[in-house]
Amino acid sequence: MKNKKTLILGASSFLGEYFLKSNYLNKFFGTYNNHEVNSSIKFNSLSDDISELDLDWNDFSHAVILIGDTDPDSCYENPESSNLTNVVSIKKIIDFLVLKNIFIIFTSSEFVFDGQKGPYKELDKAIPILLYGHQKLEIETYLKSIQRSCILRLAKMYGNFDNDRTLFTNWVKDIDAKKKIICANDQYFSPVYVEDVVKIINLVIRNNISGVFHVSCGKKYRRDFLLDALCEAKRIRPEIKFCSINDFDLAENRPLDVSMDSSKITKLLNFKFTNTEDFIKNRFSV
Q1: Which residue in 23, 47, 130, 231 is a FRET match for 10, CA 20 to 30 A apart?
Q2: Phi, then psi, of 20 in degrees rounded to 5
Q3: Residue 192 φ then ψ, to 5°
Q4: Phi first, then psi: what are they for 147, rounded to 5°?
Q5: DSSP-derived pairing of the beta strands 188-189 and 221-222
Q6: Is the pLDDT of residue 276 over 90?
């Protein structure tokens, strides 16, 4: 077991690439579809059979499932294809991994909740209002009867690299370009640093932790509050227009409060998540 690897299914995703960058002991191997990344093999979950991959499955003890259409608007606008990607193909992958006795880690979403009463705990009933949330919840339900599995509901992730297209770097790009920023002032969430997510998954792998867990900074933030903190750190005040999150051109209305309580996993693993406000100060202060 000690020398076995973890398969990252969807290694070309934002989170997947962070895993392969941390591959310091050759612990991870990935699959990609369109965008090739190092230490990976091509796999299209819609057209390829996972059992036919040129891999020695005895080399693997764990698999992290990152494959999927993660854009809620795309899922809603393409319900049949997104269902094939996010539900049908994932169930086939799960069935195969169970046969191979591989421990499964599935990344779910804050969008399994309806946004009525955050911060949510793991025992709160999941009632999604987005099709994407329904698809994630269907896989959660499918996995709950599988003992060797872990479901991690991820909050909105942010990164540390310029142009990584995450929350703060997107805002900085607009600020530097002197663009007007349109920001919702009625949506609450608990954003999480991507490197914290990698660390959590590594701890889950190391300890074979099963169950459902929320992976978030653990604090409830309103979106415009974080923009204000960023502007203060950069000592600049761009032109900002505030609005409702649902004033944007979205295919479905977004839940207004998807903040999540992460105390269950922090206590279990004795883990401290990155403080979002401290991250902003340390990364963007001038």
Answers
A1: 130
A2: -70, -30
A3: -130, 140
A4: -65, -45
A5: antiparallel
A6: yes
Tokens of 68: 């999927």
The first and second tokens of residue 178, run together, are 């002197």
The total of other beta-carbon atoms located within 10 Å of residue 225's CB is 15
Q: 221-261, pLDDT tens digit by residue?
A: 999 999 999 999 999 999 999 999 999 999 999 999 999 99
Cα dihedral 241, 276, 268, 17 sign: positive
Say what the pTM is: 0.96
The answer to whether 280 and 230 are in contact (CB under 8 A) is yes
The band of 17, judged by pLDDT with boundaries at 50, 70 and 90, is confident
CA distance 180 to 165: 17
Name the CA dihedral angle for 142, 130, 69, 22, rounded to a multiple of 10 degrees.
-80
Residue 39 pLDDT class (50, 70, 90 cuts) = confident
- Provide the 3-class DSSP secondary structure of residue 224: helix
Q: pLDDT tens across 229-238, in order? A: 999 999 999 9
Instruction: Quote the CA–CA distance of 100 and 213 in Å, as a whole number.
Output: 24
Could you tell me which residues are beta bridge partners of residue 158?
A: 193
Q: Which residues pair with 215 in a beta bridge?
A: 154
pLDDT band at 25 (very low <50, low <70, confident <90, very high): low
Q: Tell me what percent of the chain is helix, strand and coil, each rounded to the nearest 5.
A: 40, 20, 40
Is pLDDT at 21 greater than 90 in this prediction? no
pLDDT in tens, 188-204: 999 999 999 999 999 99
Q: Are 245 and 189 in contact (CB under 8 A)?
A: no
The domains located in the chain, with CATH, are 5-159+190-217+258-274 (3.40.50.720)
Output the CA torsion sign for 55, 200, 222, 111: positive
